[in-house]
Amino acid sequence: MTGDGPRVVAIGGGHGLAATLRAVRTYTDRVTAVVSVADDGGSSGRLRQLLHIIPPGDLRKCLIALAAPDSTLSRAFDHRFAEEELAGHSLGNLVLAGLMDVTGDPVAALDEACRLLGVRGRILPATTEPVVLKAEAASGPVAGQVAVMATGDILRVSLVPADPPAAAGVAEALATADQVVLGPGSLFTSVLAAVAVPGVRAAVAASPAPTVYVCNLRPQEPETAGFDVADHVRALADHGVEVDAVVGDTAAIPAGAPTVPFVDVPLARPNGRAHDPARLAKVLADLLG
Length: 289
Fold this sequence. Notes:
The chain is of the alpha/beta class. The chain is about 40% helix and about 15% strand. It has twelve helices and ten strands. It has helices at about 15-25, 40-50, 55-65, 70-75, 90-105, 105-115, 145-150, 170-175, 185-195, 200-205, 230-240, 275-289; strands at about 10, 30-35, 120-125, 130-135, 140-145, 155-160, 180, 210-215, 245-250, 260-265. The strands form two sheets. Strands 3-2-1-7-8-9-10 form a seven-stranded parallel beta sheet. A three-stranded antiparallel beta sheet has the order 5-4-6. The protein is globular, with a radius of gyration of 18 Å. The protein starts with 7 loop residues before the first strand and ends with a helix.
């Protein structure tokens, strides 16, 4: 790639999206992360409830993934306290909460955090409104991301409220993208939680860029127990998300019969538990041609 590289928008949440961002930053400086904000557990859940802000945890992970490699502040953002009232909180979560409080605007807060950390690219929440993830499962309705993660046989996920606006900048980033990458990560509670925002889903559908889905390395119990790659593609389509290609590693998850082009390559780190950024970067860059 020449110049600053292609414009890439990566969508999802948590550790999975951070892995994609570490991969993408090796072949472009022009990356925008669109991050799910449905988390209601741990430090993020506590800060969300106490301060009435969007949860900062997944946003923090993305900041660290795109930060300057030698940034001491980036390492400090991941520092988690163990003492008394601060127990369980990371410094980055607290800083983001403070920036949101001072600016009154989560997007402005994230732009300032990106500046502080020397981030290459931009990080946007899927929406700036607090939302609750809701699932319809075989066992009945379930509310809250933590509860949904502990549920199997999920049929559909949605948000409450149902129509929160997409954050400023999301639609523009997708309209000018050269590549859109979904995942990896929890299918229902990260990837689909982000595109459950109607404006995000519509902007993905309208984007001229090819959309690539990066599948998890293995089924996630119980959320996607028994799923193969084709089941992931089917679930995306059931939620109004059509992808142009899927990238996966069938060492621990079967392919099934995906209805879109499937790139099956080794993607795992040596421990087999997470995507290797260098391997993932090669596949994603190759798909750009």
